[in-house]
Amino acid sequence: MRRALPTLPFSIEDAARSEQEIEEASQAGEQLVRVNQDTRLDFRYLDTRTPAKQAIFRIQCQVSDFLLSEGFCEIHTPSVIAGSSEGGSAVFKLDYFKDKPGCLAQSPQLHKQMAICGGFGRVFEVGPVFRAEKSFAHRHLCEFIGLDVEMQIEKHYSEVMDMVDRLFAAIFDSLNEKCSQELDAVARQYPFKPARDFTSVEIETDSQQLVAGIRQATQLDYLRKTLRLRFEEGIQMLSDAGVEVDPYGDLNTKWRENLASLLWRSMTLNSKFFIAILWLLGLSIPCHDMMTQSTTTHLMSSSEEKISGAQRIHVAEVLSERAGACGIDVNTISTYIDAFRYGAPPHGGFGVGLERLVMLFCGLNNIRKTSLFPRDPKRISP
Amino acid sequence: MRRALPTLPFSIEDAARSEQEIEEASQAGEQLVRVNQDTRLDFRYLDTRTPAKQAIFRIQCQVSDFLLSEGFCEIHTPSVIAGSSEGGSAVFKLDYFKDKPGCLAQSPQLHKQMAICGGFGRVFEVGPVFRAEKSFAHRHLCEFIGLDVEMQIEKHYSEVMDMVDRLFAAIFDSLNEKCSQELDAVARQYPFKPARDFTSVEIETDSQQLVAGIRQATQLDYLRKTLRLRFEEGIQMLSDAGVEVDPYGDLNTKWRENLASLLWRSMTLNSKFFIAILWLLGLSIPCHDMMTQSTTTHLMSSSEEKISGAQRIHVAEVLSERAGACGIDVNTISTYIDAFRYGAPPHGGFGVGLERLVMLFCGLNNIRKTSLFPRDPKRISP
């Protein structure tokens, strides 16, 4: 290093300090500097010199080995697409070439499905996705890295759920195994207990017993085989807890959140990490989920994070019908629907944000800690 | 598979046929169907059902192991950036939020340098880069996947050149080792001889001898230690061959192409692959390369492909001066220049297009064969 300015905007020491350290000093009458988030992001190249931040970004690059070993092919689908992605207002429009309106993909969903129609069998992608949402929430970014998976189904949708289980157990195992130094470095500044394989709880089919079993655990971590609740079991738990539910209703967001928080509150609180699968087959589906046939949701950390998975509709005629019923002009998505006309295997998949995953694994409170150069409605640099 | 339309736009058999097969049939009086490129791209999900295409995309996902094992951290830098990327007209503009003009990054160059200033030591990225160039050339795309590498330099720029050597040897080794089935599948439709480690040629310091040595080889492939020509040796070769060169001139594109084609023509022609390093230290630099201090260019396949590498200027004051001299308004790139004010180690790096790399390795004639859903000025779907 040479010719650095003699005074940095903040010292690396200040930036590396834990909240606890600052508070203890404060109680002892000493006022230590607290480096705020915006300053950190303005000078991200200083902020990342702290051991915790170094560790966070090294943790992020360990997730794809398992998928490759399971025969998945890593693909790269385009960020620039025609029309308006999956619709809605949360799309960034683009001046492509003169006569072509374009936008940035809100997810690789359509293209990974086309890859399945293209004979790949199993694909995944780690790449940027774009959401023009005017949100400054601690878990929202306008550009983030999606880990998206799609696979052909041989017999039953449970294959997709099994893959979610095995993938995340493998990711967490691998993080614990390969990144112990990095996890320690994060924990020194942002204390957390790393998630651990938690196989001592016996999996019961009865959801009440399950939750009771989990409650007894002193350290809740990830289960090698994730808690899997059927729709009707979820309904039962909610109604037992006095939450009003319509047993013939949709698997809507509020319903999910209620159940997640119920599960969450039932558990010991010394772990911030928790996965459950809710799953639903063959019921009516909310209209915005045009391509969904059966769904699962993994809930993590008090409903904060969802890995949403679904079996897709793979029959072009049904898709067209559904689009019509949802008020979508079929012509605008014809290249997508056409992909299913020439033979399409049953398939399903899921997606999760990479920065969110690391944020939750490390018990961090803001996604701006795990995105290297975060983008939100007010931040487009550095 | 169910309910496929009875007639496909083209048969997988037709799409899987090699040119040779079509021509042999034609000589025997039989007219076989040739599926053209646009039709393949319109129905990419059919085209990818051919063994060769399946193989091509499986080959692409094997490149990052070596870098991780060398202590590089995989990073994800933003695609959406403020201002106009590295300038020029080849930039896609974006409606970010109301008061913020944005664009798509033409390369992760600035951000990977900031990561080096941020203490990462060694970083790489595999991610999309965007070029709004109105080109339909066989090697140009408007969105492609860049493999970009940046590293701190301990003593000398040769460390970066060594890394290029070792990385590409490792990638080629790994492709040959892990993807032999896939390479065979490609070769059945698009005949090529896979590149092979070619260590039997002794490396001579004298460039004339070197080229002579390579000429004797019956199969030219990659050298474990790449042919490395110093600027003045390159000048000498060109002037020996009757090409007019200014020994005090810049390392310009035409100069590079001349030398590459000279090297290329000097060699046996049974391999399409060739790497040489041209390198230049401390001479005057063309103005558009504001951040360059010393450069190398790897030339592959008759100057078609370049891995351009460079040591960057890491002193903010020099950068500011250089920007001024190049007519760039320093204010527009101030967050970039500021990153060097608070301590920046000497560093350098290089980048290459992933689709181009696979295209060249497999001796393919068009990048649209190695990009899953290619984007060019006329093609923004599917």
TrEMBL record, chains A, B:
Q: Name one GO molecular function term.
A: ATP binding
Under the cellular component aspect of Gene Ontology, which terms does the record hold? aminoacyl-tRNA synthetase multienzyme complex; cytosol
Tell me the Gene Ontology biological-process terms attached to this UniProt entry.
aspartyl-tRNA aminoacylation
Q: Which PROSITE patterns match?
A: AA_TRNA_LIGASE_II
Per UniProt, the enzyme's principal EC class comes to: ligase
Q: Where in the cell is it found?
A: Cytoplasm
Q: Which keywords does the record carry?
A: Aminoacyl-tRNA synthetase, ATP-binding, Cytoplasm, Ligase, Nucleotide-binding, Protein biosynthesis
UniProt entry tagged with the keyword Nucleotide-binding: yes
User: Domain Aminoacyl-transfer RNA synthetases class-II family profile spans what residues?
Assistant: 58-374
Q: Which reaction does it catalyse?
A: tRNA(Asp) + L-aspartate + ATP = L-aspartyl-tRNA(Asp) + AMP + diphosphate
Answer whether the UniProt record assigns the keyword Protein biosynthesis to this protein: yes
Entry's SUPFAM superfamilies?
Class II aaRS and biotin synthetases
Q: Which family does it belong to?
A: Belongs to the class-II aminoacyl-tRNA synthetase family. Type 2 subfamily.
| PANTHER family membership | ASPARTATE--TRNA LIGASE, CYTOPLASMIC, ASPARTYL-TRNA SYNTHETASE
Q: What is this protein called?
A: aspartate--tRNA ligase
